[in-house]
From TrEMBL:
It comes from Seminavis robusta. Residues 1201-1213 have a biased composition (Polar residues). One of its GO terms (molecular function) is nucleotide binding. Residues 783-1005 form the PDEase domain. Gene3D superfamilies: 3'5'-cyclic nucleotide phosphodiesterase, catalytic domain, Nucleotide cyclase. Its main location: membrane. One of its GO terms (biological process) is intracellular signal transduction. Residues 527-661 form the Guanylate cyclase domain. This is Receptor-type guanylate cyclase gcy. GO terms for cellular component: plasma membrane. It is found in: Membrane.
């Protein structure tokens, strides 16, 4: 077929014959349907045509009406959107200006107050250094000093030093004043260069303490027994205003009410005070700063007395000048005093106009009010008399119409008019198009009618119908088979769409479909960034998947924002590696500088975010660091087509950058020579530091590389006087691997330096994290309680009785009965997120954990950090326990009526642990306190040393002591509100106590008797022959809590809880290799310290390697298999078993060298004085023990890696694996 010509308007010219046949087929179908009902087909066709024309006209009017409505709606919406945008801009700019006003004025005011305080201290220091006695003190060169203070305090109008003079000192001070007053006035005259007046010639200088009576407008001598004493004498003053003969000295300012009010506050609080008033020169405040008889260093307990004050008058109008550009025209600043004064300023750019007393802002902008506490000396109002007003100033900022006018324009009307004009143009275009289409359709219809007449005259009706059917089939086949796939997908039948989809899929899989030219290009000048999170693999091994994703989402989201700010193109993220590039897709000359800034900001943001996230993600999060490599050069970039098209970088530059990142160290930005050269050429040489040693780069050999200095590097260098981080890295040649967790001594040192610089405490962060975790569990406890029952039983007597009879170990039970869960229990449960804990309870929880932290000794292993690590593992295992299926499955109608039903998961998986928030809280609570006051030596050694605790507890000494001491703290009156959240009645108290006892006692795995009992209970609970029917167990031990029909479930729950804490206590052995090595080394250091202190008879390095293998084989791996076999902990049990077996194999290969490394590092450490005695600090100072010199029995070196497992002796020379297994297997 010949190509179809096109009209000028771009529409294709359809062949008349083809169109006629197509349209005639449609017309013939209408004719066929109507012929059976009416022989007059022409009449019917005419009626149909008229009806169709009418419908089309209606549709046109409806469409025009819809367009009109849409245009009006769009125009109105455009108007309001633009107007709203202007409003938002106005509000944003107002907030920005307000923030600037608040920031600048606050800083200026604080600077003024600090200058006044420094001036008062200088007066006090001068008096002390010269031996002067108050009140007979005169500052030399006072005028020059006061002028300097006035300049610092925003051109203060008045600076006066006023001593307190008692009745006893009055005559002596007046005698002293007569001798020096003219001299100090003469000094003021000389300093101001006034030579025509002498001080002795001035009149009206009083030589006794006086006061000025405003009514009489004259001075009177202060009587000896004036009620306004001690007198506050206006002694040294600037300015004297001698040209105006206004020399106000020797006045008793205590007669001025505003000053008397402020002085009263100052004398009571010992701090500065202010008073707000309106003077002739404008709204001012009087700052009263106390002068003490001595200047003491911070923290001194020595007492000091107020001997006078510095009185400074500040003018507030000066503080609001020169703050904003001219565009910031029209911001009301309302200054309100707590004593009732209110004044208003209007800031117009650089000018601040004082509107006088009262609030004069435009009330139409009340909704945009910004309030800020301006001046507050934090005076305790409880100690101030009721008639004394404590003056506190508050700023209120409001916009004005003038400011709003800067951001209001006629754009909304313009855009609305444009939208309406577009509608008019669209409507006209539509009408023209409609007229053209109708004209074309009329031509086609005329031909269809003509052809239909011809066909009807040539063929009978039946043949005509068959012909039309053939034509229809040909039309359908042509459109489906020969038409485009996209047309078939859009207009075809369901079958045609399926065929088209298959064709489309076949084309996608066909390599021929990719023969087209790909989208790709070569970029000559780029800088590539590779950033890897150091420590991420080991960190993620102890976290939930959701926590891992939370970290990555926050970090990468922050990096993405930084990338947008610096116009850096993010390529992709591969695991914990972030890849970015500058110089494409838009080339830029400063690609190296931009990437350097991006890398510095990412490094800074990394440290900031990990510290903030540590409260949510647990301890160790802030230890994560970023390791960055940068390299510059050309790259090939383009779209990699296929099922999932991606943008990719290729070339040597990318490979080199990846190796630069690998060769970097945590917390550092590693530069290739190429990138360093570009930075130097761009003038950023100050950012670059040489790396003294060459590094080996795979495929490149040894290279001289550089460091890009970060903000942290600068802070460390300024504070530690070293000029290059390379001082920490002294190896002449370093080979790097791809291990993302490899660290160097330089990194550790830099991290410690940064920690000290920021003043952060690891234990404070650990306490906050523990508070957060336990608070979440407390919310679950409160959410499970009936909100209608608000009365809590009086627990005083029950709390006194608990734990008073026998030892802690004697309280340990085989079975702890967990509460039944019924329909009503689930009905009353609320969403824990909706529960708000009482502030006092949270404060007491924080205080309790702080005391617990303080009661952990400074051991290498058994410390609060390890307890938090155990807590983290407990939380992970608790979250992995299969959650209770809340679908009720009832088997009998009476079960439903009585509110008792079966929960499949409750009986089959979690044994009620996940359904009882108190149980979960108790387990986590026990993990936090389980090693409190641990002495850093095994229980057996405490027995050998005749420790009083060993005599008291006999077995599990450290564990029993931890429970007893922690319980004593918790039962104090200081934690009454916390206890009310934990338990509400005596049954819950007993169950909580029982859980804590059982959980903490379970951490002693060295006691053969306890271990044997747990082994028997495990077999009884989980062996197939007895697992389902252990009700007889109730006869051999008492149950805590209500009676339960299915005792077997409670027995399983008890043993699962004990194994949960045991696994958590040694969780480092079942986590990433680096986590295991860190805690294993700490345990080694702890035991080696005890050995050097004479508290162990054998060097722990002897047999440590063999002991660890035995510990894995006979305790850790069997314990992990038990966790897996009980089916409670989901995938965590398989994860623990996998890590345990992997760590065991790794230790077998490297353990001997690692032990020697431990020993060498310990011996090379700075001198450690071996302790000869120690004191375990309980809450009450009850006991103190010194280590005896008796010879200990021959015991092997402690070699195990778990908490308290160091008490298990094992050595290949004196024990075999079978005896070791008998001793430790639970």
């Amino acid at each position: 077929m010949a190509p179809k010509p096109k009209y000028e308007d771009g529409f294709a010219d359809v062949d008349d014959d083809d169109a006629s046949i197509a349209v005639s087929s449609l017309a013939s179908r209408s004719t066929r349907r109507s012929s059976s009902r009416n022989n007059n087909s022409g009449s019917i066709e005419m009626q149909l045509a008229v009806g169709e024309k009418t419908r089309m006209m209606r549709m046109k009017f409806v469409m025009l009406g819809a367009l009109l409505v849409f245009a009006v709606a769009l125009g109105v919406a455009t108007f309001f959107i633009i107007r709203q945008g202007e409003e938002q801009t106005f509000q944003r700019e107002f907030r920005s200006y307000s923030s600037e006003i608040v920031a600048v004025t606050t800083e200026h005011v604080q600077s003024s107050i600090q200058s006044i305080e420094a001036f008062a201290n200088s007066v006090s220091s001068y008096a002390s250094s010269t031996g002067m006695t108050w009140p007979n003190v005169t500052m030399p060169d006072y005028t020059s000093r006061a002028i300097r203070l006035a300049d610092l305090a925003a051109d203060s109008r008045l600076v006066t030093v006023a001593p307190f003079v008692t009745n006893e000192d009055k005559l002596g001070f007046e005698e002293y004043a007569r001798g020096v007053i003219h001299e100090q006035i003469q000094q003021d005259l000389d300093y101001q260069g006034i030579t025509d007046v002498n001080a002795t010639d001035l009149e009206g200088i009083p030589e006794v303490i006086s006061y000025f009576n405003l009514s009489a407008r004259q001075k009177f001598v202060e009587p000896p027994n004036s009620p306004f004493n001690p007198y506050l004498v206006n002694w040294q003053r600037y300015p004297f205003e001698t040209p105006k003969n206004r020399i106000f000295v020797m006045n008793n300012m205590m007669r001025i009410p505003t000053i008397r009010n402020a002085v009263t506050q100052t004398r009571i609080s010992g701090h500065a005070a202010a008073t707000f008033f309106e003077a002739i020169l404008g709204v001012e405040s009087q700052i009263i700063q106390p002068i003490f008889d001595k200047v003491l260093p911070p923290g001194s307990n020595e007492t000091k007395s107020i001997v006078g004050v510095v009185w400074v008058v500040l003018s507030w109008a000066k503080y609001f000048r020169n703050l904003l550009p001219d565009s910031g025209n029209g911001i009301y600043v309302v200054l309100k005093s707590s004593c009732g004064f209110v004044t208003t300023f209007l800031i117009r750019g650089l000018v601040a106009e004082e509107l006088g007393l009262g609030d004069h802002h435009d009330t139409a902008y009340d909704h945009m009010e910004i309030q800020y506490d301006f001046v507050n000396f934090n005076v305790d109002g409880s100690s101030v008399p009721d008639d004394v007003c404590i003056d506190k100033l508050t700023l209120y900022l409001y916009p004005s119409d003038d400011l709003k006018a800067n951001y209001t324009s006629s754009d909304p009307y313009v855009y609305m008019a444009v939208v309406l004009a577009i509608f008019v143009l669209t409507s006209v275009t539509f009408l023209l198009f409609d007229w053209t289409v109708r004209a074309r359709e009329q031509k086609v219809m005329d031909r269809v009618k003509l052809q239909d007449k011809i066909v009807s005259s040539l063929f009978p009706t039946t043949f005509k119908d068959r012909l039309y059917n053939i034509n229809d089939d040909q039309f359908d086949n042509t459109s489906t088979l020969n038409g485009s796939v996209s047309s078939a997908l859009t207009f075809g039948s369901a079958t045609a769409k399926k065929k088209a989809q298959r064709l489309l899929e076949r084309d996608l899989d066909n390599p021929e479909a990719l023969r087209g030219k790909p989208i790709a290009d070569l970029f000559l000048e780029t800088t590539v960034f590779f950033g890897d999170i150091s420590g991420f693999t080991s960190w993620s091994s102890v976290r939930e998947p959701a926590q891992v994703l939370t970290l990555l989402e926050n970090l990468y989201g922050a990096f993405d924002k930084i990338a947008r700010r610096h116009f850096v193109f993010k390529v992709e993220t591969i695991g914990d590696c972030y890849v970015a590039v500058t110089g494409l897709p838009d080339p830029r000359e400063d690609h190296a500088i931009a990437m350097a800034r991006f890398a510095r900001d990412c490094m800074h943001k990394m440290k900031d975010l990990t510290r903030k996230l540590e409260l949510r993600l647990g301890p160790g999060t802030s230890d994560l660091n970023l390791r960055i490599g940068l390299h510059s050069g050309q790259v090939t970039a383009g779209m990699l087509r296929g099922e999932r098209a991606r943008f990719q970088l290729f070339g040597d530059t990318v490979n080199t950058c990846s190796r630069m990142e690998t060769a970097s160290v945590p917390g550092r930005i590693h530069l290739s020579p190429t990138t360093a050269k570009l930075l130097i050429e761009a003038g950023a040489s100050d950012w670059i530091r040489d790396r003294p040693e060459k590094v080996f780069i795979a495929g490149k050999g040894e290279m001289e590389t550089y460091w890009l200095e970060t903000k942290q590097d600068s802070a460390i260098r300024r504070n530690k006087d070293f000029d290059e981080p390379s001082q920490h890295l002294r190896a002449s040649s370093v080979h790097f691997t791809d291990d993302d967790d490899s660290t160097t001594s330089a990194d550790s040192m830099a991290a410690e330096e940064l920690e000290n610089l920021r003043g952060m405490s690891k234990y404070e962060r650990l306490i906050d994290w523990n508070v957060e975790m336990l608070s979440d569990l407390l919310r679950q406890i409160l959410a499970a309680r009936d909100p209608n029952v608000v009365v809590r039983a009086n627990m005083s007597e029950a709390e006194k009785k608990i734990g008073r009879h026998g030892t802690v170990l004697e309280e340990c039970k085989d079975i702890i009965a967990l509460p039944k869960i019924g329909y009503k229990d689930l009905q009353i449960r609320r969403d824990p997120e909706s529960i708000e804990l009482p502030d006092r309870a949270v404060e007491q929880l924080h205080q309790f954990l702080s005391i617990v932290c303080d009661n952990y000794l400074d051991n290498h292993f058994h410390n609060f950090e390890h307890a938090s690590h155990v807590t983290s593992s407990v939380l992970k295992l608790l979250t992995r326990i299969v959650q209770v299926d809340t679908t009720m499955q009832t088997s009998r109608e009476d079960d439903l009526n009585s509110g008792v039903f079966k929960l499949t998961d409750f009986a089959g998986h979690s044994y009620g642990i996940t359904s009882d928030p108190l149980t979960q809280f108790a387990v986590v609570f026990s993990a936090a306190i389980h090693d409190m006051q641990h002495p850093g030596i095994p229980n057996a050694r405490m027995v050998e040393e005749n420790d009083p605790l060993a005599s008291k507890f006999k077995q599990s000494t450290a564990e029993q002591n931890s429970v007893e001491e922690a319980w004593k703290i918790l039962m104090k009156d200081d934690f009454k509100d916390l206890r009310a959240c934990i338990y509400k009645d005596e049954a819950e108290l007993k169950r909580f106590r029982q859980l804590v006892v059982n959980v903490v006692m379970a951490t002693d795995i060295c006691d053969k008797e306890l271990g044997g009992m747990r082994k028997t209970r495990w077999q009884k609970a989980f062996s197939p022959d007895v697992a389902g029917s252990p009700p007889e167990a109730a006869s051999r031990t008492s149950l805590v809590g209500p009676s339960v029909q299915n005792v077997g479930m409670n027995e399983k729950a008890t043993i699962v809880i004990e194994h949960l804490i045991q696994a958590s206590d040694v969780s480092h052995t079942m986590q990433h290799w680096h986590v295991y090595r860190m805690w294993n080394e700490r345990l080694f250091n702890e035991l080696y310290t005890a050995y050097l202190a004479g508290r162990a008879t054998k060097d722990p390095s002897e047999g440590w390697y063999e002991g660890e293998i035995g510990f894995f084989d006979f305790y850790i791996i069997p314990l992990a298999k038990k966790l897996h076999s009980c089916g409670v902990f989901g995938v965590s049990s398989a994860e623990y078993l996998s890590y345990a077996e992997s760590n065991r194999d790794e230790w077998k290969k490297k353990g001997k060298e690692i032990v020697q490394e431990y020993l060498a590092k310990f011996k090379n450490r700075s001198a450690v004085a071996p302790p000869s005695s120690y004191i375990i600090p309980p809450i009450s100072n009850e006991r103190q023990r010194t280590v005896g010199n008796q010879k200990a029995t021959d015991v092997a070196a402690p070699t195990l890696s778990g908490d308290n497992q160091a008490t298990i002796p094992f050595s290949t020379t004196d024990k075999n694996h079978e005896s070791f297994q008998d001793e430790v297997e639970v």
